[in-house]
Specification:
With 133 residues, this protein is mainly α. The chain has one domain. It is built from five helices and no strands.
Length: 133
């Protein structure tokens, strides 16, 4: 069970930001995108091209999380079967996102993005475990 949960959280990478009001979501996304852009050393052109891709992925992930009742800030997560369904949607979204980003970012930048996502998944797992105590 723990292994399954860990693998699901790792795949949830994808741009997990706090659930909040629309203005706060926008600010959270802006902060996230700025951080990712800086870590990937994106050119201004890459920022312009990737921002809508990251935003769409972010919005789709939020929608998916809400659909399944997943809120890491409150320690809320769906049951194991819904978690599997949610994971499938997140993975599908990530593949679509990556196929678009692959055309804009270098292989090195895509590798760094994977590391960023892996770190976010670890942080998310820690946050969820803290709420379980």
């Amino acid at each position: 069970m723990k292994l399954l949960s860990a693998s699901i959280v790792i795949l949830l990478f994808v741009l997990v930001l706090p659930f909040s009001a629309a203005a706060e979501e926008s600010a959270a996304f802006d902060k996230y995108f700025s951080n990712v852009s800086e870590k990937l050393s994106m050119t201004p052109e890459q920022e312009k091209e990737t921002r809508p891709i990251f935003l769409q992925s972010y919005q789709e992930n939020l929608s998916t999380f809400q659909k399944y009742g997943f809120n890491p800030e409150k320690g809320e997560k769906p049951g194991i079967f819904k978690l599997e369904d949610m994971k499938k949607e997140i993975v599908k979204n990530q593949k679509v996102t990556d196929s678009k980003l692959d055309q804009i970012l270098s292989a090195e930048q895509m590798g760094e993005l994977k590391q960023i996502r892996d770190q976010e998944a670890k942080e998310l797992m820690s946050e969820l475990k803290a709420h379980e105590k």
